[in-house]
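User: My collaborator and I are trying to settle a disagreement about how two of our proteins should look. Neither of us wants to argue from intuition anymore, so we agreed to look at predicted structures for both before our next call. Could you fold the first one, then the second, and keep them clearly separated?

Assistant: That sounds like a sensible way to settle it. I'll keep them separate. The first protein:
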Amino acid sequence: MDGLPPLTHAQVEHMRQLEPCIQQASERYRINTEIFRAVVLTEYTKPGQVVTNKNGSVDMSVAGINSIHLPELKKFNIDKDLLVNNTCVNLMVGAWILAQRMAEVDINDPKQLWRAIGAYNSKTPKWNLIYQKLVWNNIQRLRTYYPQLNYTFKEMKVASN
């Protein structure tokens, strides 16, 4: 793992509990499960947890859904309470957001794909790149617990229609 710390017991248990909803959300929105799993680990927010950011926005529950999305989610009858208290809805929304970011780029171009992954967190180049690296590192860490995922990035495909 090139010097990356292994997952803690708490992280492993956290991901195990979320796995059924991660799988379901990935399939529903046709995104690569490995990438989404790593995004969720990168967010590493507990069910029901709300984190206040320096800019006054909040990140909600396991997929770290930012409150900036609430106006759009209201159209689908999804509010803060539902995002905070329903883990699977939170993960579905996270997968939906990631799928939207990926739909904006040519996912067959690795640079564009990774910018889309970084855009889950921020479109600002500095923060986007930091997030890309965090997700990539978490993919490597997760492969320890999901050995079937031991393949190269070039072999990793994002599901499409």
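The second protein, kept apart from the first:
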Amino acid sequence: LTTGDIVALSSAQVGVLSSAQVAGLTTDQLTNFSTDDLRALGSAALRALSTAQIAALSSDQIGALSSSQVAMLTTAPQVAGLNSDSLNALTSSQIAALTSAQVAAIGTAQIATMTSEDVVALGTAGIKALGSAQVHALSTGNIEALTTAQAGVLSSGQVAGLGTAQLAVLETDDLRALGSAALRSLSSSQVAALDSDQIGALTSAQVAQLTTAQIAAMGSDTLNALTSSQIPSLTSSQVAAIGTAQVATMTTEDVVALGSSGLKAMGSAQIHALTTGDIVALTTGQAAVLSSAQAAGLTSTQLAALETDD
């Protein structure tokens, strides 16, 4: 058929084209289909389109596909073969129609070009379907645009694959939405990438879920970002994992916030690292739980700083 013949086809005629007939169309012929003609294609005919044929479709043609037609595209080669222009031609409503299998088939190079609106349009099911490499390919703008619900369904594998630049733009509400497994999957470098506002936004329950390895790897800035209301949530194992260099930088408010149980959990080297100001600030209850081993580790300056009541 000539280009003129293709243009002259009615939508009803296009609607009865078989999969074999559609597969045999040239890219030039396809580009002359009207948007109504494309919407008229049946399921089998639509799924017969090759990667080259889909790539030849204009943004208007891609955008004209109904949500049900988008959901009928094959994972391979059609969705997997979408180039960035074709993927970005999909509207937010079409993106929302993609199945989990289709989302998982999108190439990382194409994921990297998605708009924030389209990433949000994936919904929670779409985010859950992304592989670690796909999540890693999301731009910082995409990560920042995630809804709290989407952040809440991120798996431990997905979170572990986030770059430090991506983590740095996670909103505080999104961090609070992370599940226990996802939070515990953060590496020491990832935890270190979080700023004071992000660390301070963690709930007390989340702080208590951090691994001892994560606590041990915390730098002074990260540890000091914990608020006095978060410090009491630290378990004895977590307190024992704090490095002496970090203990030495703790504020007197945070040392007091450790309470008696937190102080009991400290090793002799940690007690030795406390500043004179920290020792002066100890409550009577805290001083009373100091073990003989801990007391033996106190310097003469620290001992002199203990208040008479302590």
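Some points you might bring to the call about the second protein. Residues 2 and 302 are 94 Å apart (CA to CA). The chain has 37 helices and no strands.
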